[in-house]
Specification:
Structural class: alpha/beta
Distance between the termini: 45 Å
Strand content: 15-25%
Helix content: 25-40%
Low-confidence stretches: none
Mean pLDDT: 95
Radius of gyration: 22 Å
Number of strands: 19
Length: 443
């Protein structure tokens, strides 16, 4: 039996895949180690979405290669999107890597590890369109929250996005399987479930009946007694219907926080990007959501420097964000990804794209400051995520903050608080963009 270390990079969906691999490895009798030092094999579960993610993955591979050269680790196995995207290049250009698994083969982690231990080279790329195989997980998040992956792949085919080529067509998990996993997670102590997929809003549309099942899934998740919060990520704007809005508005366990990636608001650019809808549609949608879901916090992502974006189109995006005052916005410079239609289009240079992303961040910073200042004086519900030894303070999140994406709430108290506890905090200040306050009571 071997000692196996894992490094997972990229999105929450990739993290879930890594947790499933860890479970399979442990079930096979191997030891899943908390670190990499002394491991017989180190598995690097990579992201290959954009240039920065690719660079991060390669940096980690090189770091592990250095440890391997020093004799601190044994073999290196690369999995995930980077290996799927650069199948031959990794083994040819990074000879320190002993094996690779594609995104369609991560379920083969155990035979792959055993082949490596037998000094065989591993290169396995199964179908990226195969149905998801149900298995357990070893959670790598804190005990009180977990990601619930409800589907794999994507059918949207946005012109700039490589994901369908790496993850395959959209495949929903069966409703009963998702609910079974959710109940197991809740029984293990999870209090906040974060529902994820490349496109959560299309959940169920590929199953018999072709019905959108997200509203039904959310209703049934809300019936799980131990769960306190349900959070939904990656809802495409054109798939939000009245039924989904009503469920979110009516179910108290569903936090009033929606992650709706829009990427832009200019009609010409959205059409070039093969996105549905336009600026008028987005304005109407956000107005409807805010009117029907009181207290709603909206998160989105936008891309600057997209093909077709001149000064006029960028100015329209800036005005849209100032007008809408979305509480959470991530801005990314366009990264032309080889193999996508957008990479063949004419687009602004990288320096312009980066400068525009910085301008968006500046606009958004002022909006977020206003939102945070408006919270001063309020009592808010906060889930405690941990304790900072250096600052000697607990910290947590409101419903408006998703873990590892948004901000924190710093909690002043002389009383010990268990991680995962929900408390009431009186907000009295904003420090470096984070809310700060004092404990009122535990819930």
């Amino acid at each position: 039996m071997a000692n196996i270390g894992f490094i997972s990079l990229g999105c929450a969906k990739n993290q879930v895949d890594c947790e499933r691999m860890m479970y399979r490895v442990q079930e096979a009798g191997h030891t899943v180690c908390p670190g990499v030092a002394g491991c017989d094999v180190v598995v690097i579960n990579t992201c290959g979405f954009i240039d920065s993610a690719k660079s991060e993955a390669i940096d980690f591979i090189l770091q592990m290669a250095a440890l391997k050269a020093e004799g601190q680790i044994g073999k290196i196995l690369v999995t995930g999107c980077l290996s799927q995207r650069y199948q031959q290049e990794i083994l040819e250009q990074l000879p320190e890597v002993d094996g690779i698994l594609g995104t369609g083969s991560y379920t083969q982690i155990v035979p792959a590890l055993e082949a490596l231990m037998a000094d065989e080279t591993v290169s396995d790329f199964g179908s990226i369109d195969a149905p998801e195989e149900e298995t357990g997980r070893i959670l790598t998040t804190p005990e009180h929250y977990a990601y619930l992956k409800i589907a794999e792949g994507c059918d949207n085919r946005c012109a700039y996005c490589i994901i369908p080529y790496l993850r395959g067509k959209f495949r929903s998990r069966q409703l009963d399987d998702v609910l079974y996993e959710a109940r197991l997670l809740a029984a293990s102590g999870v209090k906040e479930l974060i529902v994820v997929a490349q496109d959560t809003s299309r959940y169920g549309t590929d199953l018999p009946g072709h019905k959108r099942l997200l509203p039904e899934l959310l209703r049934q998740l809300c019936q799980i007694e131990q769960l306190h919060w349900l959070r939904i990520h990656y809802i495409y704007p054109d798939e939000i219907d009245d039924e989904l809005i009503d469920v979110i508005a009516q179910e108290p366990k569903i936090v009033k926080y929606l992650d709706i990636p829009i990427q832009h608001c200019n009609s010409k650019i959205l059409k070039l990007m093969n996105r549905r809808g336009d600026g008028v549609f987005l304005r109407d949608l956000f107005a409807k959501l805010r009117s029907r879901i009181p207290g709603l916090v909206l998160r989105t992502s936008v891309i600057t420097g997209l093909p077709g974006e001149g000064e006029e189109e960028f100015a329209e995006l800036c005005e849209f964000l100032k007008e809408q005052c979305l509480e959470r916005v991530g801005a990314f410079a366009f990264s032309p990804e080889e193999g996508t239609p957008a990479a063949q289009m004419q687009y602004p240079d990288n320096e312009t794209a980066l400068a525009r992303a910085e301008m968006i961040e500046s606009i958004q910073s002022r909006i977020m400051d206003d939102y945070s200042e408006a919270m001063v004086g309020r009592e808010v519900e906060v889930v405690v995520d941990g304790y900072d030894e250096e600052l000697c303070q607990y910290y947590g999140r409101t419903y408006a903050d998703s873990p590892d994406i948004d901000g924190r709430v710093w909690i002043a108290t002389d009383e010990p608080i268990s991680e995962g506890t929900f408390v009431t905090v009186q907000i009295d200040s904003v420090i470096d963009g984070d809310l700060s306050g004092f404990l009122v009571e535990e819930l």
